[in-house]
Design a protein that fits this description.
about 90 residues; about 50% helix; mainly alpha; two-stranded antiparallel ribbon; about 10% strand
């Protein structure tokens, strides 16, 4: 997470808390598991000729592990309430 997110004020987070979160996010994103996850999705995006072409499509995982092409907005919004997955 780069910069100052509006939710930090809403959650009344201190500067120390924000720093801890950014440090955690940086470490999490750098893990081999997350790197491989991004590589898999980017590879599939390129294979389907939708990587970087501005069509608004993303490749996402389904519950059974398949990769499907869908609207980027829908895919990224599917974090679920309380971070519970709502995968297709």
């Amino acid at each position: 997470m780069a910069g100052k997110h509006p939710s930090y004020d809403k959650l009344n987070w201190s500067a120390e808390t924000i720093k801890k979160k950014k440090d955690y996010d940086k470490e999490y994103s750098a893990s081999d598991e997350r790197k491989n996850y991004r590589v898999e999705l980017n590879r599939e995006n390129r294979k389907r000729n939708t990587y970087g072409n501005g069509d608004g499509k993303d490749v996402s995982h389904t519950k059974d592990g398949e990769l499907v092409l869908e609207n980027a907005k829908s895919n990224r919004a599917r974090n679920g309430h309380n971070h519970k997955s709502t995968k297709k």
